[in-house]
Write a structure and sequence with these properties.
Layout (H helix, E strand, L loop, with lengths): L1 H16 L1 H25 L1 H10 L5 H21 L3 H19 L1 H5 L5 H6 L2 H14 L6 H14 L1
Helix pairs in contact: 2-4, 2-8, 3-4, 4-5, 5-8
């Protein structure tokens, strides 16, 4: 039994050691994806404003600008690991609203046809944002570095 406990403890240490590299990979990949999506909106504002108008989004031109800036700025913050949990919350809300407004059919099929929900564009963005919101940015982030220096300053 002791051998099993030691093996399990070793397994847990190895699994826990993967947490920060995984969070870094999620932040880097999905941060870049948010930047790319936001830049696409900024590059073609009239087309996206028309789409938003067709979805009955109020003030579509303003909303496209706001969403694009959120995605670009949020992506940059995710990549840096700066204010990660704070920016993850509006990104989560943004992706939920993307389901509600642009992918209503996929959202309604969350129970009856999970594949439709999962294959909708907002899904992976939403999951990545939820992971960062729930678990934070990990050790390889400016948030962690700032926290380290704040703890060090408070100790002295």
């Amino acid at each position: 039994m002791k051998a099993i406990d030691k093996l399990y403890a070793l397994f847990l240490r190895a699994a826990n050691a993967m947490q920060s590299p995984l969070l870094l990979a999620i932040r880097l990949f999905w941060g870049w994806q948010f930047i790319t999506a936001g830049r696409a909106k900024l590059a073609d504002l009239p087309s996206f404003a028309e789409r938003f108008a067709a979805w009955h989004v109020p003030a579509p031109a303003f909303t496209v600008h706001a969403i694009a800036l959120l995605e670009v700025g949020g992506g940059i913050l995710l990549i840096l690991g700066l204010a990660s949990r704070l920016i993850a919350l509006p990104l989560v809300i943004n992706m939920i609203m993307a389901y509600v407004i642009a992918d209503t059919e996929a959202l309604k099929s969350i129970i009856s046809d999970g594949d439709k929900f999962i294959n909708a564009a907002p899904c992976t963005f939403l999951v990545a944002s939820l992971v960062i919101l729930a678990f934070g940015p990990g050790l390889f982030s400016l948030d962690s570095l700032i926290g380290h220096f704040r703890r060090k300053a408070a100790a002295t």
